[in-house]
Amino acid sequence: MNSLQNALFEKETVFIEDGESKEEIFKSVAKQLLGKGLVTEDFLDNLLEREENYPTGIDLSVINPNLPSIAIPHTESGFVKTRRIIPIKLIKSVEFKNMIQPDQKVEASFLFMILNDSPNEQANMLADIMDFLNQTDLEELKSFFELNEEKEIYKFLATKF
Predict the structure, then answer these.
(1) Rounded Cα–Cα distance for residues 45 and 23 (Å)
(2) How far apart are CA 85 and CA 116, in angstroms?
(3) Which residues form the PTS EIIA type-2 domain (predicted)?
(4) CB 126 within 8 A of CB 86
């Protein structure tokens, strides 16, 4: 367990959201992050614009058909004030454009939102998330995506990421 990686997650920034669209979920989470002083006033607008231009949906069924699709939304470092990964469990899956094939859509049910105030670290954080997905035991990963409590999601990531 690497203390730097553990610092990427905080109990108070694990969310369970029941929005009907990515825009609704982004608004809810951005409002909470702004209230905690973790992002700037322009964070939401930039997040929405970036997601439209650079989609972040990932179809995990290529790793295993039993895994849900996810998204890894993020924005430029100038709109955030910390370095953290925000896990967001979605009660209802929502549509995201596929990162690899933007003309295709995925129904994401979990988001790993990257907050990164260092422009040089974005790719590293994305790679860390992909490593976590690829290296975590499949049964454990399936169980993780079924968790429905913020504290359980945090505990899993704090010990396994």
Answers:
(1) 10
(2) 8
(3) 6-160
(4) no
DSSP string, 123-157: HHHHHHHHHHHHHS-HHHHHHHHH---HHHHHHHH
pLDDT of 127 > 50? The answer is: yes
Query: Is there a domain that residue 71 lies in?
Result: yes
pLDDT per position as a tens digit, 64-93: 899 999 999 999 999 999 999 999 999 999
Residue 160 lies in a domain: no
Give CA–CA dist 1/79, Å, rounded: 29
> pLDDT class for 6, splitting at 50, 70, 90?
low
54 domain-assigned:
yes
